[in-house]
Design goal:
This protein is α+β, with helices and mostly antiparallel strands. A seven-stranded mixed β-sheet has the order 1-2-3-4-5-7-6. The radius of gyration is 15 Å and the shape is globular.
């Protein structure tokens, strides 16, 4: 597996990454409806293109997952469901911690899988906030060793 920063042609890569996002969201998200996903898709695509740092995990020519970073915070982490459980998300997060000094991530309280993942690898909840939805956003910080 190769981890690399996307430095050129984010627009072309964004097309592949939005498909990974959509597959992941549909696979894990029982709290988002199809119309919610459709509304979010153009916003996520724009966010991907404009992220300060965008890293991908790939093998040969297949992008397996990506992480988007902004100001020491994980803004997005998505892995193709067919590659879940293979350490790709963990590799991306630790690469971001070591090379980009990431310490923050926000997780929806409904996303139990992501919450368990971040806790397992060393993040802890330090606060939460309400949004304009009925869901809380949990703010997590990396427990530096």
């Amino acid at each position: 597996m190769i981890l690399e920063k996307v430095t050129a042609n984010k627009t072309a890569v964004a097309e592949d990454l939005i498909l990974i996002w959509e597959d992941s969201i549909k696979y894990i998200s029982s709290f988002l409806k199809e119309e919610d996903i459709a509304k979010l898709k153009p916003l996520v695509k724009l966010a991907i293109k404009n992220m300060q740092t965008l890293l991908i995990a790939k093998e040969k020519n297949t992008i397996m997952g990506f992480i988007a970073l902004e100001n020491k915070k994980i803004e997005m982490l998505f892995v193709k469901p067919s590659f879940w459980g293979k350490g790709i998300g963990k590799a991306l997060v630790f690469f971001a911690i070591e090379n980009y000094h990431v310490v923050w991530v926000d997780v929806s309280e409904q996303n139990k899988r992501a919450l368990a993942f971040y806790k397992h690898i060393g993040f802890s909840i330090f606060s939460c906030s309400k949004t304009n939805t009925p869901f809380l956003i949990l703010h997590m910080k990396w427990k530096q060793k």
